[in-house]
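Supplementary Text 2. Reproducibility record for the structural model of the 287-residue chain.

All settings were left at their defaults, and a single model was retained for analysis rather than an ensemble. We include the record here because the model underlies the residue-level annotations in Supplementary Table 4.
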Amino acid sequence: MLLANVIEMYRDHMQGIDRSPETIDIYTKDLRAFQRHLEESQNGPAYLEDVTTADIEGFLRMLKDVKNYAPNSRSRNHYTIQAFYKFAYKKELVPRNVALSVEPVRLPKKERQHLTEREVAQLAAEIEHDLVRLVVMFLYHTGLRISECLKLTLADVDLDAGVIRVLAGKGNKDRTVPISDKLRPQLADYRDNWRDAYGSDRFFATKKTGRLSAVYVNHTIGEAVQRLGWDKKVSCHIMRHSFASNIVRKNVGLVQIQKLLGHSSLAVTSVYTHTNLDQLTDAVNAL
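Retained model, structure tokens:
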């Protein structure tokens, strides 16, 4: 069977099990890149049943040596191909999952970059766009992903109850996140006094488009970072890391942080348990 046809079957399968549009697009993009690589190397169409472990290893090697993909990107491609062949095997389209024999990509162990509370305040003060500044503070005080944040409707942000309802977040999961005492008055002031996108039900929305773009938010953050002269890359996702890292420092338990972030396992949340030199110094001096 043509690999291209099975990729379309897998795309339909992901839509049928309600994978997010972002996940479907990323998986499809990865698989089509794999298909093109095979077609170019074989100078002809690629067939599902003809793919070998060596073909997958060659593709991952090409991503490293030719495309200069980072380990995380190569690891994602490997995971995508594994999931694709798991699907093909379950549908009895292949006699075995050849992707299982491929060694996983070794990932460097490094701590997640984050901002301190002081740096968050500096960044917010430097952002000139009022709505983007509010979104940055919202991300820092809630830990939401930018995609979750910008999908929120007016009904999802319940200021009376003091909660945010995240519907169909990553993994198609719902969760409820409390609104902090610091954030609540800022959101109420925005909603009641200066939100002017009255034709839109999105909570964060501009008058012109009725919504806000993640690309625009990240671009505005980047401009502020440049003006501050910081030698670091800051994005919306760094605000989520900053939320998690700073509440870990305040001794909030990992289980609570896992629920707030919407992680599927504690293993994912545990990457935020990094320490700084001051904490290590306090530790050795405790003896």
